[in-house]
């Protein structure tokens, strides 16, 4: 295993421990609001601190961008860690056992290493640039689906961006009509990991942040999939609008959502 992936795994497991311990005593967690329907708990923050501490022990000069602590500028900006300590906070606070730790390392702006860890199931998804993607050490691959007929798509509702509800529902309606079924499980990182593992055929969501998708993007690409924005470009890191699936299925999804995008989502 690449030494930096090893540190990413160690960090994810440290955060996972913090999260699991707290999940057993949910009545003790402190919840604060960051914005509309956007919550953060003391556990998100403790988990992020555990990750930052583990990374900095080995790589004190690296730069870190975390959802909760923001940018920690290191002397070495070539190495940039992008972390979501707890992806699926809404599930976590409601006691729904589906959330993950997501950690990616970018080297000179390119995704290089990725970990998504589901502490409830003990599932560790990993990827290294050019080396494929694994689940608990076993190779995983994106389902090479060719059409929506028979496919199951994961998605996320735009609960933090309700101005997009109508456009989203139109996209949903069109895709739902053609697919076998849809899933809204509540963790973007796991949605992407599940695409990588071939558990779902594809995934789309509006308005994500870089820490939601960084690790999942490398995972999907290394597992033989495609990650794009809503118009087939690579602006998803800025727009937060993302489609992930086999290259063939992505074409179908993009074709079907195009009429509903409007100007705001055409990026
Ligand atoms: C959220 C989850 C959710 C997605 C949201 C994300 P958070 O992340 O990934 O599935 O629908 O858009 O913001 O805030 O729980 O880390
Ligand atoms: Ca959050
Ligand atoms: Ca997230
Ligand atoms: Ca989070």
UniProtKB/TrEMBL annotation:
It catalyses: a myo-inositol phosphate + H2O = myo-inositol + phosphate. InterPro entries: IMPase (IPR033942), Inositol_monoP_metal-BS (IPR020583), Inositol_monophosphatase-like (IPR000760), Inositol_monophosphatase_CS (IPR020550), Inositol_monophosphatase_SuhB (IPR022337). Its cofactor is Mg(2+). Mg(2+) binds at residues 67, 84, 86-87, 212. It is an enzyme of class 3 (hydrolase). SUPFAM superfamilies: Carbohydrate phosphatase. Part of the processive rRNA transcription and antitermination complex (rrnTAC). The complex forms an RNA-chaperone ring around the RNA exit tunnel of RNA polymerase (RNAP). It supports rapid transcription and antitermination of rRNA operons, cotranscriptional rRNA folding, and annealing of distal rRNA regions to allow correct ribosome biogenesis. This subunit may play a central role in organizing the structure. This is Inositol-1-monophosphatase.
